Structure formats: structure tokens, C-alpha cells
TrEMBL record:
Composition bias, Polar residues: 56-67
Organism (species): Pirellula staleyi (strain ATCC 27377 / DSM 6068 / ICPB 4128)
Residues of the signal peptide: 1-25
Residue numbers spanned by region Disordered: 56-82
Name this protein carries in UniProt: Lipoprotein
Keywords in alphabetical order: Signal
Amino acid sequence: MLRTHLASVRNLALGLLVCTTFAIAGCGNSSGTQYSGSVTFQGQPIPSGKIYFQPDSTQGNSGQTGYANIKDGKYDTSSDGGMGAPSGPMIVAVEGFAPASAAGAGEGGDEVSNVRMFPRFEKAVDLTSANGKFDIDVPVVAPTATGQPGVMVNP
């Protein structure tokens, strides 16, 4: 009888520990400000990629980095695979990938390649009053030695 009671107490304690861990961890994409918007390169929607919202510690901002997948020129940190970030001064980074047809991988353009459209683009911005809406256009500067378009870093 005592052994059964101890096993029940142990199972209850383990269950409470698991529940507490999930409560502290949260749902991933529910923390911080949720950002959404459009992402373009040369005025055209970026077919696929990733956008990151890194709090700018040099400006006194801290917290976890937010991120979202880019699909057809749109992103939303509250979507699956995304994470919100604190508001305030940020370093926003964009990575964009060409459609498979543009990379010579076939017809249709629905598939995405692993060919970067441009080097990783970063820009310092202040999202203190963004209210979750932020659009960004990746600027073109000149082709690099590899023939890939170059971009300005922190213009």
C-alpha cells in the first residue's frame, strides 16, 4: 500500500514538473511582438527565405531573436515556424532564395532552390512604434565578383 502511494506521489510530481516546464516555455511564437509584412528585392516579392529580428544590444535592446519564413514575399512571425521578438531597436536580417526554375532546376517556379538571390542583408531599424507591421525592400548595389547581386549592409 505504501509503495503504491509513493508511486502515485512520484507520478504526480513528475506530471507537475512537465506541466510547469511547458508553462514556462510557452508556445514558442507567442512571446514578444508579432511582426508581419512584405519583403521585396528589386521591387519583386522574395519567393522564399527567412527574416530575423535581432534586438540591437548596442542600442540597449535585449531579448530573444524573432524570425519568420518568407513565402511569396510575405512573412508573419505568428505563423508556424515563426517567433516574435521584443519591440525597439533591431537588426533586421533577410535571406532570400530564387525559385527553382530561375536556378535551372526545372519549370513551373513553384519549387524553391537553395540558390541565394543576394548575400544576407542586414539593416538597423527602430521598431518601437511599428505595431507589428514592417515591410522591407532589399536594395541592390552592384554585382559581386561571383555575379550575385551585392547589397548594402546597414545603409
